[in-house]
Design goal:
5-stranded antiparallel β-sheet; single chain; mainly beta
């Protein structure tokens, strides 16, 4: 079953700095940004632990940039959307197995 959802969700995510490559030692390490990994999310009162990150892509929406995370748990596939303008998460799509 496939469903377009577009509902707000709560997400616990890891933001890990990505170091830049430098030929000289730096007094303060610089980063090229953060690697974002959603770990668990809550939708309609239920928690969904993410067991696999399948795909990440981004898309422009006017001034906003939306990052899409295609993830799965043990029984479902989800498409999570993170808005860099609103700093909020939404569940865009849900695919139920079986």
């Amino acid at each position: 079953m496939h469903e377009f959802v577009d509902e707000p969700i709560e997400v616990l995510a890891s933001f890990v700095p990505i170091p830049t490559c430098a030929s000289e030692p730096l007094s303060k390490p610089k980063t090229a940004g953060n690697k974002v990994t959603p770990l668990i999310f809550r939708w309609r009162g239920k928690r969904y632990p993410i067991t696999k990150l399948n795909l990440i892509h981004r898309q422009r929406d006017g001034e906003d940039v939306i990052y899409y995370f295609n993830v799965s748990d043990s029984a479902n596939y989800f498409k999570l959307a993170f808005s860099t303008k609103r700093l909020s998460w939404r569940l865009a799509e849900w695919y139920a197995l079986g």
